[in-house]
Amino acid sequence: MRAVGILGGMGPAAGADFVRLFVQACTRHLQDRGLPVHDQAYPEHWLVQLPMPDRTQALRRDPQSPEGPAAHLLQGAGRLAALGVRSVALACNTAHAWHGQIQAFFPQLRVLHIAQQTALYLKAGGARQALVLATDGTYDSGLYDAALADCGIAALRPGQAGRARLMQGIYEGVKQGDMPLAMQCFGEVLAPLLQHHGAVPVIMGCTEIPLALPQAPQACGAELVDPAWILACALAQDAYAH
Amino acid sequence: MRAVGILGGMGPAAGADFVRLFVQACTRHLQDRGLPVHDQAYPEHWLVQLPMPDRTQALRRDPQSPEGPAAHLLQGAGRLAALGVRSVALACNTAHAWHGQIQAFFPQLRVLHIAQQTALYLKAGGARQALVLATDGTYDSGLYDAALADCGIAALRPGQAGRARLMQGIYEGVKQGDMPLAMQCFGEVLAPLLQHHGAVPVIMGCTEIPLALPQAPQACGAELVDPAWILACALAQDAYAH
């Protein structure tokens, strides 16, 4: 087994939930192979949650600003590398705007890419289009558009009002612990989009969205895709790889 | 804010849940003080989950065996210390049998003690007796008996058959992902004890127990005390202390 790392704090609740998903992905890995499940069967893993400057704001202003997240992401990844981890997952979609920079700095690490992993998963399932729910920062960076296009999948997104309501659900809802508000915002954005586009896979492309959308009544019956779960499975696979 | 650490892997699901509790305790800390809640308001925190030899087995045989958890606990704590954390929580009750050893090795760390924190909490609430549900290892080590006695609280425990059923719920239930079995085991132990002792606080003295007991019908209306939550609050307090 290889030691792996999780770079979080974006936000902290989503980072904590990502560890839960990773442990669950490891359990699934063991069970699928008929291996015994006990404490000692899990790989060494590290989570660091740093007070990280806002990603969307930095992308809107200057992604390389010394006040932005770039330096914090690099020091977090550097300390994970020093601990001997081999693969790292970024527990934040928007932070993937700095993925290439982190990967280039630390060639000894494999930095997994949440949108590429998600696109590969959807491609394997035969999807031709997918609805992306994300932060403004993630939309601006074209993170999912590029990864989905590489797999021949068209990316659909809400209009401007819907995007503003998503940001409200993320920032005033989940990040401030107001889950009813988050459910309401996310559900209201989803309903008309599903009505318009039909039953397309819904990518919950911000780690805060899966903490509230699945409980919204408008999400009932929708094909919700959690990129954090897909990323957690990819990290578990790396941890168990020889 | 001070960086803090969590030493987990005992088991990994409980360690992941402890991070969730810590983040929730930080949110509560901020809200109680009317401070704004956003990603940057959370302290730096680290979780390490190591493949850790079984604690109860080691206590039954030789607590200082090189195959036991002592060396692993010390290397985990040592790496957390090297990362600059100031306070550490052990996300496992039974592992507190090695608390004194870890604390003595790393005087630069404050290693919180789950049973002492729980006893202080119950004392503040005026409790005179409490029911302890735990592993054989924790019972053998007298962890809660000593901490509760220091606070003038009598420790009640299940008989031998009940203790064996708790171990089954922990090892065959939670640690193997079989939550219905865990709920059944924990609930069956609790019901006759509450009938016999009346409405006493119930200390869920193994980090696996709160993952299943609260959902058991027999626990409905019981005063369940989660030492992991109390420990998470103490760690949050250290992180925000000046």
The strands making up the biggest β-sheet of chain A line up spatially as 2-1-3-4
Average residue-wise pLDDT of chain A: 95
- Given as residue ranges, the uncertain stretches of chain A (5+ residues, pLDDT < 50) are none
How many strands of chain A?
8
Taking all Cα atoms into account, the compactness measure Rg of chain A is 17 Å
Backbone structural class of chain A: alpha/beta
CATH topology annotation of the largest domain in chain A: Rossmann fold
CATH architecture of the largest domain in chain A: 3-Layer(aba) Sandwich
Residues in helices of chain A, as a percent range? 40-55%
Say what oligomer this is.
Answer: homodimer
Level-1 CATH class name of the largest domain in chain A: Alpha Beta
* Distance from first to last alpha carbon of chain A: 7 Å
Largest sheet of chain A: 4 strands, parallel
Could you give the order of the helices and strands of chain A?
A: EHEHHEHEHEHHEHHEEH
- CA-based shape of chain A: globular
Strand content of chain A: 5-15%
Number of domains of chain A: 2
InterPro entries (chains A, B): Asp/Glu/hydantoin_racemase, Asp/Glu_race, Asp_race
Pfam families (chains A, B): Asp_Glu_race
Family (chains A, B): Belongs to the aspartate/glutamate racemases family.
GO molecular function, one term (chains A, B): amino-acid racemase activity
Brief rundown of the structure:
The structure is a homodimer of 242-residue chains. The first copy, chain A, has 242 residues and is an alpha/beta fold.
